[in-house]
Fold these 2 entries.
Entry 1:
Amino acid sequence: MADVTAPAPAASVPPAAAPERKAHPMWDMLFKRLGFGVITLFCVSILVFAATQVLPGNAASAVLQNTATPARLHALEVQMHLNRPVVAQYWTWLTGLFHGNLGTSLASNVPVTTLIGGRIVNTLVLVLLAGVIGTVIGVALGMWAAAHRDSVLDHVLSVTALAVTALPEFVVAMALVILFAAVVFHFFPAVSVFPPGVAPWTHPSLLVLPVLTLVIVIVPYTFRMMRAAMIDALESDYVEMARLKGMSPRRVLIFHALPNAIAPTIQVVGLNFLYLAGGVVVVEYVFNYPGLGQGLVNAVSDRDIPVIQAIVLILAAFYVLVNIATDMVSLAASPRRRLPRS
Amino acid sequence: MDLSRRDLLKTAVAGSLAVSAGGLLSACGISAAQTTSSPLQLSGTPKRGGTLRAAITGGSTADTLDPLAAITNADFSRVDNVYESLVGLTPTAQAQNVLADEITPNAAATEWTIRVKQGITFHNGKDLTADDVIFTFQTILNPKAPAAAAAGLASIDAKGMKKLDARTVRVPCKTPFASFYEALAIPGYSAVIPVGYNLKAPVGTGPFKVQSFTPGTQSTFARYDGYWQSGLPYLDQVVITDYSDATGQVNALLAGQADVVNLLSADVIAVVESQGKKILISEGGGWNPFTMRVDSPPFNDPRVRQAMRLVVDREQMMEILFSGSGTLGNDVFGVWAPEYDHGLPQRHQDIEQAKSLLKAAGHEGLAVQLVTSDIGQGTVQAAEVLAQQAAAAGMHINVRQVTATEFYGPSYLKWVFAQDYWYYNFYLPQVSLATLPTAPFNETHFNNPTYNKLYQEAIATIDPAKRQEIAREMQRIDFTDGGLIIPFFPPVIDGYGANVHGLVPSKGGLSLNAYDFKHLWLT
């Protein structure tokens, strides 16, 4: 965040884009951050590759398990090209990447894109649905609680939010399954199993409990931040002024307080999305949801390096992009900080 | 972290029992009242049609439809329905012809003649012939890519096989191989694939043909109308879904999203039954041994191995791991085989004798590391129980848990004190894999000259009675001198819905009667 308001170094501005005038600081930031993002991803790929080399056992021994005679192990290692030098293996993967080729899964001998394409969609649906629903509920509840500060319901909401933040997601998930699917009621499916190649939204009932779990986990954070930021805004001089001018409470809340409370909340929303990209692993595990998290767990236990690389890079890219988007949006929401310092 | 989460999930499942037992809802009472048929009740007339949904653990992206490379439960659940073997195991763990019509040895057990049944077709319509049998064994023994069975069938002279007529093959062996027939019953050892087999368009002779297959996720199979056993299978379709662990499996069964689930732990039996679902408990013949390397200190001293075997309270271990079900072990494998010697004295816990053996060996207060991993039913828990029981004899067993991939990584077969899992098989084929110096999976590095000589004698003896006599002599050596601790043969616990019929318990050690779905029918 420190560099957000820094003056733009001329070198990083694409010269063709704006030759005669200084680029807008937001564009400048975007290009710089994207550049750093690419470098980050490159470093991540080296780290992940190195880490997979340190792990005991390789894809061949993981596949053969207790049928791994030396002859079988050797044959499979040759077939998987695991007997080549480590640097050469990495180089093959990297050059493949520049040709848009993520490689072939060692464990299943299927192209990585085929293997994880559906999983990306499945996880994205889960993350977006939970993120959007959770944000809307969190912001609405936060605004309401701030406007009705110290009411009974406000206290109930605050205490509940605090309690829920203490619950790990698998506890929430299991509680929901016991309550709504497996034991008490049988309203929704207990596991989210759908055929490969089928989009998850064609089976909406399978999404209910996984999304609900994630929503319950992220709402308290958004709610608490929104409430605090709104209370700050409502106590400010300009809101006082607006009230004195005789504006309706609703108008004060929505047009005067909300725009000023939204910037810190956006940061929390961004963090929530980042959490979702990781937290989804546990939820996918509990519901047997065929997403990226489940794919990554499988790939690590199989030492399936191309698949590990692809999934980790996708998650890392998601982190980078969400971070950039969060900063851009909160910058847009704070007009003062958008101007270059003179 | 992982362990605590798993524990918590288990507790949560167990907790759901409390909820339902409390009678919070009438729904539970209704579903419990509906369950009247016993798991063995086969009296109803089987009905054709329907789709069976199986929730299976043990799979991953490494899932395969290659019957010669199958390893995990998830693999066997699929390949056992698509392919068939020359010889298979009955539910009572006896070897029986499946595709084979007749298999006969010569007098020296150096040559076997296999004739396959007539009128069997692969899913592509091709007839099963002698060429397919030759192709299968040559694929298994391909030196460039040996299959899982290659080590166990190494005596076959792959180049010398000869087709005698359309359905008959002569299989010469480089060394006598009297246990050939029994070895063929090991899962994956004689699953027949057609000449020119292509894994991308896999066909077998089994009751179901492959419709779709996504490793690590889901696969579907359709009834093969040309199946040779008339009237079978009853089902139109089978959908097999991979599950990461028992939590999801049990939830799917309880919520009615799965019809059969495999390999449950004993602690979920009560929950499953309280919700009107069924449990199938089989006495498995598989074994999850502790393996002591007889060529490494401290286990190179037979007294230490004996002491270690004497500290185990086998009954207590089975009670803790499987709530008492399972079969008591006596440090010898092959429990259902006719040659298994039930006359050996049952070994029980004897702390005093263990202590005095340790003292005599100069290893009082022995400290040793036991490498464990979540590889078989209750392996990790068994390690923890053993450590506690051994403490009574003043031993300090430091349990080190590693991931399955690390366990089977570069140190596999080199661990000094570890565990493993084995599926059931007859005694002699398993000896050739486990306890000979030439055995590919000789975890204990066992190399006893008398034992080795006896094996060579047994393998050249066609007469079953004589062979059994020699095998029992070998078992006495296993019992007194071996490096394996086999405290129990774990039970196999599966779950199924009340709408599923035709399931029988089986002793082979694989779930759901070796995933025999052709006899299942739905109501």
Note: The two ends of chain A are 18 Å apart (CA to CA).
Entry 2:
Amino acid sequence: MDEVSDPTISAPPPEGVTRRRFYIGAIYGLSATIAAALGLPAAIYLLFPPRARKSDQWIEVGDVTRLTANSPTEMTFRRNRVDGWKINSEKATAWVVKQADNSVVAFGPQCTHLGCAYHWDEEKTEFLCPCHNSLFSIEGKVLAGPAPRPLDRYESKVEGNKLLLGRLMKPEQNS
Amino acid sequence: MRRHWNSMSEWLDHRTGVQTAVRQFLYEDIPASSGWRQVFGSVAVFLFLVQAFTGSLLAFNYAPTPGDAYNSLRYILTELTGGRLIRGLHHWGASMMIVVVVLHMVQVFLYGAYKKPREATWMVGVVLMLLTLAYGLTGYLLPWDNRAYWGTVVTTQIAGQAPIIGPYLTRLLGGGGAVGVVTFARFYGMHVLLLPPATVLLIAIHVYLVRKHGVAPSPGDELLPKKQFFPVQVFKDTVAIFVAFAILFTLALMVRVPLEQLADPTDTSYIPRPEWYFLFLFQTLKLFPGPLEIVGSVVLPSLAILALILVPFLDRGRMVKVTRRTFAIGVVVLAAIGWGGLTATAIATTPKPQPLAEIDYSAPTDWMQLSPAEMAGVAYFRQEHCISCHAVGDDGAKVGPDLTQASIHKDATWMIQHFKRPSAMRPGSSMPPIQLSDAQLNSLALFLLKLNPNNATALGNAPDFATAGALVYQANHCSACHLVNGVGMSVGPPLNGLAQRRSRSWVEEHFAKPEELSPDTIMPPYKLAPKDLDDLTTYLLALPERGGGQ
């Protein structure tokens, strides 16, 4: 819009200039105010996460006595997932490992590279992702391939013989 | 830096001509008499842009099918930050747009600015006004609440009354009489796919025609030197736009746009009313009873539109000063009185929505704040006639202690043991044991522990349906999934404010067939005895909109 103010520079009368400047300044100022008053709420509306609707729940996944130590088992369970304005009941899976000290770890079922489903290779005793050949150890550590971080883990606890899973945590959130 | 900028803008102008075009647009000559009265057109265009912007934002979080539409709009209003503001802007923007478009039209009409050679500009303007009304009509259905549904039922029925084309119109609106998925899809398609490009096109033609013929001069203007559109008139337009925006923003912030109950075609108690700018048409209908109805519903509105379009051909006299256009002023005043009278009558004759008949709002309603378990405790308290031996805050001397005294409050475990074997926990007590299950005794304990002299009135004023309903609620373990007054789980939706969201018949039917009414639900069906169903439903619908702890 430079050409609009150009005539003011070349036109000398000082009184006309100030009045003209006032008009132009007001036009820009008012327009900018309106743009901000619309743009800011719009950005907040689109970028802020929805208000959390529910507290974390523990979901019963299965019986830990049927797990054998150091042999990962894929367990499926149903959980409720909030999807926008809906709550969907959907099938979910976890790779559950009973470790030597009898503690139980549950890994999220997706490779940390690009989200492919990995599986347990019985012979190599490693988790193998078929997409880009990422390899993970039984503790979830990256052994090879492009995966950027260890496998994600569910919050988990054992009550009696029941395994309960909570949220899926990324490694940096692990406590 | 500046030179750099200049050469860049020169390059752009040479390749696109955009700056030359903007300059031509801004330095257009306008008559000396132009001023504040010509700002309405610009304000209308601005409001259209606001509607397009906020409408797009709403569409990003909106599912355009019945049922989902309502839930997604609720999601926008309650879960998304700023959602209420965006919807408020869109809702009030629609009303303001109608106001501004009409003001624009009245201004042009009063000044006779439609006269030769500007007849086409006027006629395109009339069509633009009809489009604005069409937005209002189609957008009204999209929240899919009772207001939307019933308003549209009436509208589509009126369309069906039109002579000859009636049946075709009905079919075009997607109905064999009923408003359902097809009507909804067509209204949505009209609102977001057909009307916006049509409006943009007509605004372009309208503005082109204004530019082609120039802004209409007042008599006497010919002798005065012309003014330029920029910057003074642009400044005035901008100030008017800013004022309109400030009003709109304040309305959106301060006045909450209601979202009523989910549309319920079986709700026979609902009294449909159109949006305020259609109320005068609604009232006109009442002036023509029986077979004459078609006069009010179709004939008169059609004639009025025809007359509006033909205004430039009905009044072909020379341009005169606005103060001498007494006939035009008279027409506007008469129209305003007629419109105002009809609208006021319609508002005055609209019955006030009835609050739930069972609730006595004149009495204290602190019972509404109790949790369902506490409310069930009230039921047991009454059932076991505790009041015959205990005082609750009143000063009558009774055998047992005053239950509102904090000094006798122990923990719930102690209380439950005491209820079972009173003398074991408090030697010498002459209280008989209470024969109830542990869960029931727990409710009683919860309620008694909450008692204090200030809330003891809840005991007296909790209506029977509430205590009975809370018993049913407890027996069916509703709190394992639902939240009431901050107590319970949040697997299912919180039940506070249910009355604002769902109708009675919907709630009752939902107990029996949850998966039919909300397809994604994980709620199991409940077969309740008629009395239990009645009490539970009444209790849930009586819950306050905002429960404690939220």
Note: The first helix of chain B runs from residue 2 to 16.
